[in-house]
Every structure is written in C-alpha cells, then in structure tokens.
Amino acid sequence: MACIWSENSYCTRRQVGALIVKDKMIISDGYNGTPSGFENICEDENDVTFPYVLHAEANAITKIARSGNNSQDSTLYVTDSPCIECAKLIIQAGIKRVVYKRAYRLTDGVDLLLKAGIEVTHMPSEEEK
Prior knowledge:
By secondary structure, the chain is an alpha/beta fold. The protein has helices at about 1-5, 55-65, 85-90, 110-115; strands at about 15-20, 25-30, 75-80, 95-100, 120. It contains four helices and five strands. α3 links the parallel β3 and β4. α3 runs parallel beside α4. The longest helix is centred in the middle third of the chain and has 12 residues, at about 55-65. The protein is globular.
C-alpha cells in the first residue's frame, strides 16, 4: 500500500510513500514532495533534490500533528528505510514499529531506530532478496 501511495509523488529521482497504522486503521499517509503551496517540482535542472523537499515519513508525521490524532505505539510502513532525520521524527512521534521495503545506502537512520528500541523490519521485494 505504501508503494502505491508513493506514486503520488512528483519527485523523479525517488518516489517514497509512507502509511502510519494504529489499531489496524490507517491514521496518516505521506509521500515525498514539496511543502503545501510550492510548485510540485522536487529536483533542479541537474537532478539534485531541492533542500525543502519533505520526506514521506515527515509528511505523514506532520499530518498527524495537524489532525490531532496520536501516533503513539503505531506502525510506520514506508517504501524506503528512513534517513537519520526521519528516524528522529519517528522516535519523537512515539511510533513503535517501522516496516520498509527498500534499504537506503546509508544505515544511520535504521541504526538510530534500533538504538531507541523501535522494532524495524525489512521486507524486501523479490528483486532485493
């Protein structure tokens, strides 16, 4: 489902989707992209991602903050393993479990989640196995 949600992203280099689930219900979703009100262009003419582009996890977590819902003890499903910045947001949001499909080249985000006692599960696609 997070993979399907990632298709909403206008980013060309990498499309990432995230869903936050609590008590078997989706309580938030997000995909990587520009902040509200910005043009939906994520990369410059050299294919470098603009620094203001939000990650899917950050989009999903900030949606919860705006909605008044609570992500404590929830599960985050995300297409790609979280970066270090998103890992910090995940910890602060009280998310207890992260499930991802594709491993990112840097592992510091996953390492931080594990250090914080968050359950992390890699569910690779057939191509990654």
